[in-house]
Structure formats: C-alpha cells, structure tokens
Design a protein that fits this description.
By secondary structure, the protein is mainly α. It is about 90% helix and about 0% strand. The radius of gyration is 15 Å and the shape is elongated. The mean pLDDT is about 85.
Length: about 70
C-alpha cells in the first residue's frame, strides 16, 4: 500500500475518532454542569481531561486541516 493511501486512512480514522470524542466531550461537559455530587463531578472532570488528552493525540496523528481549525 502506498504511503499516501496509508496517510489517507490514518487521517480518516483520526477524523472518525475525533468526531466521536467531540460528542463524548460535549455530553460529559453537560453531565458535569448538571451534577450536584462533588465526587461524581470530580470523576467526570478526570474523564474529561483524559478524553481531551486523547483528542490531542488524534490531532497529532494527522487530522484534516478543517478539524484542526475547528479545534482552535
């Protein structure tokens, strides 16, 4: 498989993961905003930080330029 085909597949997979992570991040932020239990809220904040870290990793893997601009 040519390098450009591999790069295209990596970009497509990264974009799919980013789209899902963005949805999970949004849902988690909404849940945090509505959570009254401090322990649960802290746990969700930790999860949110992990998802944001993972998202940055996918951006570095070769996300499409439009995704990079949207994240800025």
């Amino acid at each position: 498989m040519a390098f450009t085909n591999v790069n295209t597949k990596i970009q497509a997979a990264s974009h799919a993961h980013l789209t899902l992570l963005d949805s999970f991040i949004r849902i988690t932020e909404e849940k945090i905003a509505g959570e009254s239990d401090a322990f649960v809220r802290d746990s969700l904040v930790d999860l949110l930080a992990s998802m944001r870290d993972e998202r940055e990793g996918y951006l570095r893997l070769g996300a499409r330029p439009a995704v990079l601009e949207a994240a800025a």
